[in-house]
Design goal:
38% helix, Lysophospholipid acyltransferase family protein, 212 residues, transferase, alpha/beta, 7 helices, acyltransferase activity
Length: 212
């Protein structure tokens, strides 16, 4: 109930601030649970992605620091979020989403790079897909990457890609993780091209690279 309530509130706020958004490739979405994966470009993408996948409901990972505030913790838990220690992720970072995907009607929103300031693909999504037996569905967001840009009612477009199925016999190692990362990146690039081949993502707050 709370998730549905929050969804309608979020949809109303998004409409008031930014107007309507455009969706491409909705016919590619599986009927059952799936893992929605995309490049992490803004902190509000989970909201847009959850709206894009409606009426499907989603769970998502949130850094443990957000759960320190009791009010925010209550909201996050009732919105199907679960805590993850980004620096030292434990077994629950895999076990919790796998159980949700297998035993509930909750799909999962996940960013394989783990951060808005990194393009390096990590293997968590691959492991979760293998253990849960559900497909990964690529999605990309093109729109404002600064919060102030949302209020200018600039166009937001999201596109879904073809589902990616992971064989349960796949061995998880550096080679398969790199191959998986390349496959996902190729899917993201293809979707970006389909939406707008001239669109280029620029990180508004890039991290400083260590030159040593």
């Amino acid at each position: 109930m709370f998730y549905s309530f929050i969804r309608y509130v979020a949809a109303g706020v998004v409409w008031l601030i930014n107007g309507r958004y455009k969706l491409l490739g909705t016919d590619k979405l599986p009927k059952g649970n799936y893992i929605l994966v995309g490049p992490h470009r803004t902190w509000w993408e989970p909201i847009f992605f959850a709206l894009a996948g409606w009426p499907h409901r989603f769970s998502f990972m949130a850094k443990k620091e957000l759960f320190k505030n009791p009010i925010l913790k209550w909201i996050l838990i009732h919105a199907n979020a679960f805590s993850v220690d980004r620096d030292h992720p434990g077994p629950s970072a895999i076990k919790t989403p796998v159980q949700n995907l297998k035993k509930t009607d909750l799909s999962l929103i996940m960013f394989p790079s783990g951060s808005r300031h990194s393009e390096e693909m990590k293997g968590g999504a691959l492991i979760i897909a293998k253990l849960s037996g559900v497909p990964l569905v690529p999605i990309v967001y093109q729109g404002p990457v600064k919060f102030s840009g949302l209020f200018k009612r600039k166009n937001v477009t999201m596109a879904f890609g073809d589902p990616i199925y992971i064989d349960k016999r796949t061995k998880i190692n550096e080679e398969t993780t790199n191959e998986f990362g390349n496959t996902l990146q190729a899917s993201f690039d293809k979707l970006d091209q389909e939406i707008d081949p001239n669109w280029v993502y620029v990180d508004p707050k890039p991290t400083k690279k260590n030159n040593h």
